[in-house]
UniProtKB/TrEMBL annotation:
Pfam families named in the record: HHH_3 (PF12836), HHH_9 (PF17674), S1 (PF00575), Tex_central_region (PF22706), Tex_N (PF09371), Tex_YqgF (PF16921)
Ranges where the S1 motif domain occurs: 637-706
UniProt cross-references to InterPro entries, sorted A to Z: HHH_9 (IPR041692), Ribos_protein_bS1-like (IPR050437), S1_domain (IPR003029), S1_Tex (IPR044146), Tex-like_central_region (IPR055179), Tex-like_N (IPR018974), Tex_YqgF (IPR032639), YqgF/RNaseH-like_dom (IPR006641)
Protein name (database record): RNA-binding transcriptional accessory protein
SMART domains for this protein: S1 (SM00316), YqgFc (SM00732)
Highest taxon listed in the record's lineage: Bacteria
């Protein structure tokens, strides 16, 4: 089967859409570029549909490679029949392929192999033929130097039969069905480790049983982690009696001694071969399902975080709060460049508040600060209270900013490259300030796993996690667009068609020649050829360019079309931009051609109405309840302001201004059944919560979403 036919069968998409998308992918076009600028070719597919085509294509190619490897292996053994070859070539399942290959797969010497060497395979065939009523006289014929008696001969024959049974695809498929639908995953505590402090967070699973099919992602991953750390033992338990009965119905067509031998072989095959193998397979499939769910949660959270509200091009005083080591202050200009840094000691043990207050006030004046960003770590609440005592000459907004991953950035090669003469504390403070100015531009510098918005992210498939998160970052960066004259190398590297090396070359060109003045000038960057320009140009913005389209999402390949529209309306492009009333009256059908259809024309008009519009919301000031400093200050029934700081499948966590985040369980998000947490809350959403329960010993807080 050719890849196109396979994809058409797997995906509910038009043939031409798949065909053209495959063509674009083969030409090394990126997913954001295809989704945004090739809508006519793909039939207006979105990024998710295009990614699904790419994933299905990759799976098909891997499947075909495996088929070739298996066919070659069986052919080398001289065992490839035309019937087997057809089955292998027609297979669309890796599991089915491996089952078909199992009898021919090179493996370590088995008990059945030893029995064959003892000459017992003919006896096994006689038993499975089920034509003999008395087996012992027949078995005596197989006594030799290694087989002492008829009983040993029958044992050896059963080992061979057990292996045959384990290799039958119908038996394997039946047991897979049983495991997939009816098996229970059970967990029991390892008694010697039950009382360890670290074990207590897993104590819910010290005596646990649940359907493997229905176990939620987070619970499965928690159980796996607990087992990995040695606190519990995990087993799969099913209705073995029913499984044995069904296997017997499939395999036994006789009675008496023959039936007894096959029954014994069935039990041995299941317990020694099938259950361990297919049990591990069932656990692996459950793990893959759990990984997929957890990765999806992480990806969704990351997307919301990256598209968080930016303050914009404002001057910021950033504070990384602390007690003993003091509060690190940095002043940043509109573009996030470091202007000044120093340390104040307003909190114990020094408690020099007078100097600290004066210093903050002086710096805000000297550097014309527009806003203050305070990290949400240790001493955050105390620092926020301190800052709010100051009467600034001009009104300043004060924001508390998440520090998650700031320490990772401060110690990274990226940070050292940006600030080679400053220590990690200064770099961390800069990161806090820049996150307020533009979360996306700053967070792309940090390994997404370090940002802390995932669900068991260290337990899932790391390759799949990285691929998914990289796609999320790429999608967000290109959805927002990038100012080529201020963007960091990290940010530029995610732009469609750019990558790390070209990002370095862009920075090098910028350092040597100053700011870019037009999109055409981008072509002068070393090794940035025509293909890279086409892929990237629409996502790169140039402020105050002579051609205003250079600061928009209109692709340069459509500039001539916009010029024609402007000419037909007897306007300049500058007069056309922002003229919503005029733009809405344009008859787009006049401009439809073989290359440009209505989807692209509508995108162009939307962009001309508000060129370069940031799709993100604006940052809003938020204040915690000033009376709540520790978990000991919480009381049941309190209503508190909070910020959603993590979303999972079982609910969301909310920062109420103390060290511990509280959980709004999915059952407490609404009065009705909640199937999708994201339908009720979003990351960094400002909410009001009601305290339901406080467990200070276990540092757990149960909350309920309060409807305003």
């Amino acid at each position: 089967m050719q890849v196109l036919s396979y994809l058409k069968n797997q995906l509910n998409l038009p043939h031409t859409s798949i065909q053209h998308t495959l063509q674009l992918l083969e030409e090394d076009c990126t997913i954001p570029f295809i989704a945004r600028y090739r809508k006519e070719m793909t039939g207006n597919l979105d990024e998710i549909q295009i990614e699904n085509i790419l994933k299905a294509k990759t799976f098909y190619e891997d499947l075909e490679k495996r088929k070739i490897s298996i066919l070659n292996s069986i052919e080398e053994q001289g065992a490839l029949t035309s019937a087997l070859k057809s089955k292998l070539e027609e297979s669309l399942s890796l599991t089915e392929l491996e089952d078909l290959y199992l009898p021919y797969k090179k493996k370590r010497k088995t008990k059945a192999d030893k029995a064959r060497e003892q000459g017992l395979e003919p006896l096994a065939k006689i038993i499975m033929a089920q034509n003999s009523s008395q087996l012992e006289p027949i078995a005596r014929n197989y006594i030799n130097a290694e087989v002492k008696n008829a009983s040993e001969a029958l044992v050896g024959a059963r080992l061979i039969i057990a292996e045959w049974i384990a290799e039958r695809t119908d038996i394997r498929d039946y047991i897979r069905h049983q495991f997939g639908n009816f098996i229970q995953i059970t967990a029991k505590a390892v008694k010697t480790k039950m009382k360890e402090e670290k074990a207590q967070k897993f104590k819910d699973y010290f005596d646990w049983s649940e359907s493997l099919k229905r176990i939620p992602s987070h619970r499965f991953l928690a159980i796996q982690r607990a087992e990995k750390e040695g606190f519990i033992r995990v087993k799969l338990e099913g209705d073995e009696e029913r499984i044995f009965q069904q296997m017997q119905r499939k395999l036994i067509k006789s009675s008496g001694d023959v039936a007894l031998q096959i029954e014994l072989a069935i039990a041995d095959s299941y317990k020694r071969l099938l259950k361990p193998s297919l049990g591990n397979e069932a656990l692996q499939q459950a793990k893959e399902k759990a990984d997929e769910s957890a990765i999806a949660v992480f990806a969704n959270n990351l997307k919301q975080l990256l598209l968080g509200a930016p303050l914009g091009e404002k001057r910021v005083l950033a504070i990384d709060p602390g007690f003993r080591t003091g509060c690190k202050l940095v002043c940043l200009d509109e573009n996030g460049m470091l202007l000044h840094n120093e340390t104040i000691f307003p909190h114990p043990p020094q408690k020099d508040q007078k100097t600290a207050l004066k210093k903050i006030s002086t710096l805000t004046e000297a550097y014309k600060i527009d806003a203050i960003a305070i990290g949400n770590g240790t001493a955050s609440r105390e620092t926020e209270a301190l800052v709010k005592k100051i009467r600034f000459r001009n009104e300043l907004q004060v924001f508390v900013v998440s520090e998650a991953g700031a320490s990772v950035y401060s110690a990274s090669a990226v940070a050292r490259e940006e600030f080679p003469t400053y220590d990690a504390t200064v770099r961390g403070s800069v990161s806090i300030g820049r996150r307020l100015q533009d979360p996306l531009a700053e967070l792309v510098k940090i390994d997404a796993k370090a940002i802390g918005v995932g669900q068991y992210q260290h337990d899932v498939d790391q390759t799949k996690l990285k691929q998914t998160l990289d796609r999320v970052v790429e999608s967000c960066v290109n959805a927002v667009g990038v100012n080529i004259n201020t963007a960091s190398k990290s940010l530029l590297s995610y732009v469609s068609g750019i990558g790390e090396k070209l990002a370095e070359n862009i920075i090098e060109y910028r350092n040597e020649n100053g700011a870019f003045h037009s999109r055409n000038e981008i072509k002068k960057v070393k090794r940035l050829g025509g293909k890279a320009f086409v892929q990237s140009a629409g996502f790169l913005r140039i402020r105050n360019a002579e051609n205003p389209l250079d600061n928009s999402a209109v692709h340069p390949e459509r500039y001539a079309l916009v010029e024609k529209i402007a000419k037909d309306e007897e306007k300049t492009i500058k007069e056309l931009i922002g003229n919503k009333e005029l733009l809405q009256k344009i008859k787009l059908a006049r401009y439809v051609s073989e290359e440009v259809g209505l989807p692209t024309l509508k995108d162009i008009i939307a962009e001309l109405e508000k060129p370069g519009l940031d799709i993100r919301k604006k940052a809003k000031v938020f204040t915690f309840n000033q009376d709540i400093k520790t978990i000991g200050d919480l009381r049941e029934g309190q209503l508190l302001p909070g910020i959603v700081n993590n979303i999972t499948n079982f609910g969301c966590f909310v920062d109420v201004g103390i060290k511990e985040s509280g959980l709004i369980h999915v059952s407490n998000l609404a009065d009705e059944f909640v199937s999708d947490v994201n339908a009720h809350v979003s990351l960094h959403q400002q909410v009001i919560v009601k305290v339901l329960e406080v467990d200070a010993a276990r540092k757990r807080i149960q909350l309920k979403l309060h409807k305003k």
